[in-house]
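Thread: Lysine--tRNA ligase, structure

OP (GT): Posting the sequence first so everyone is looking at the same thing. Length is 550 residues per the record. Can we get the structure tokens written out before standup tomorrow? I want them in the notebook alongside the other entries.
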Amino acid sequence: MTSDIPDTDPYAVLSDSDRAFWADAVADAIEDRDPQEPLVIKGGVSPSGIPHIGHVNEILRAYYVAAVLRERGYEVRQVFTSDDRDRLRKLPRQLADLDGNIVSLGEVDAGALGRNLGRPYTEIPDPFGVSDSYGDHFTKLLKQSVQELDIDVEFVSNTSLYKEGVFDEVVQHVLKNQETAREVLTAYQDKVDEDYVPFFAICEECGQLTETITDVNIEAGEISYTCTDIETGDDTIAGCGHEGTTSVRDGKLPWRFEWPAQWKELDVDFEPFGKDHAEGSWPSGVDVAQNVVDIEPPVPMVYEWFTLEGKALSSSSGHVVRVDEVLDLLEPEVLRYFFVKEPLKQRDFSIQRIDQLVDEFDRFEATYFGERDATESERAFADRAYPLVVDEVREERVRIPYTFAAVLGMTEDEQLREDIARKQGHITEDTPEWAVEEALARVERARNWARETGNEFDYKLKRQEMPDVSFGEAMETALDELAEFVAAGHDGEAIQSEIYETAKRHDIDMSEFFSAGYRLFFDDDEGPQLGTFLGNLDREFVVGRLRREK
């Protein structure tokens, strides 16, 4: 029964297009179906644990398509379902409070969570005692992440859709057509026998979602069940054995049926999803939609998952980075840029190498403004995508190179930061005040990055007071000579070379001479490339410090 209709191929929408920007290709495919407004763009996730930047992958992919459609004059709803009636299958290793603070299970009532295995997320108490439920807590955190990126998304609770009767009609339709549902599902799932019923009931006794349905009364909208054990991977969650009858609103469809039910009831026109769904839930979703639910599936698009420092993101294991943590290190538009790139190319998000991402964004931006040589495809992509990445297109903006911003972050003196940036030509007399402020905001982010990673920029200039140091006669003479060289007005590159020459003239070990400089300026035995750094500081201060005067 599987459909062969070409536009259900989740890879076709991008592979068959020559558009410079992938979101235009998706918008074309949606328009080709002559859709009714408002157009509905959907995503969704189960609120199982700490939201991370992997979750906003789907939201931002959908956002760019929605933005393109709005440009074309369509009314668009971007919705995101919190699949919060899913069951808690295992305990996460870490949790986060509403302020984003990560805590271990030992800091909350882990025993209470353990007693709630198998229950829907919205039927489990919030471990922090603040939100209405576990599901509500982690949905709030995801909403906060989206708000931090300034994206307008309508969140929809699956639990609410069931409770309010929105799913009543489609649930009853699936249950009326159980035989067809079983026949379709057999192609995708093992252990589908003649007793299989596509519904999970919430046990009135223990609250678990049980899969053992013993009777269906369509007219009354009731389901009879026995609460039996649940197999979750290698684990088993024990059922309580209760036998009861409940409403179709007190349960849920299995995911392979629930996804098409969402498409039907939310009238979805487009949904992006990860590669795992492309080879799993999507083919069955198409089949269920066409042959059980009696609708056409939305336009699909596959995106690749990305890794974090080379490893898969995982809420349950705690290998995550949150949106707010990333925005402490770079501007929102840089993070939005990460997701504007080709969806089917696998990438790694690295905090250690985040300077490379920022540099790439700066080149992308400079390409848009015609400030660098670029290929035809780079220009076409930047011309189309850049206005969708930034809040406002402003040619007067200033981007201080990220690693140079990290160098500036070695001093807490904000005026000195600005003075050095002006000295190096990044800020000019014509730079508007707002652009100066935004440019210098990158310094603080780069400073945070240096501290987070402990890299070569993680040093603090001791400008206000000289460290308590003492040197031998030869070292003091060499430092005085270097001071004279700096006073003569040489640049950082020349100062760096002179450091080597001065050490040689005085037969001082090179590492000891550099160490003396680091101790004077950073109260440390190591630091950045010393001469280059000193060349960026005001000459009077450097000369005075080398002479041990201030």
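GT: Both are above now. Quick notes for whoever picks this up: The chain has a mean pLDDT of 93. The chain is about 45% helix and 10% strand.
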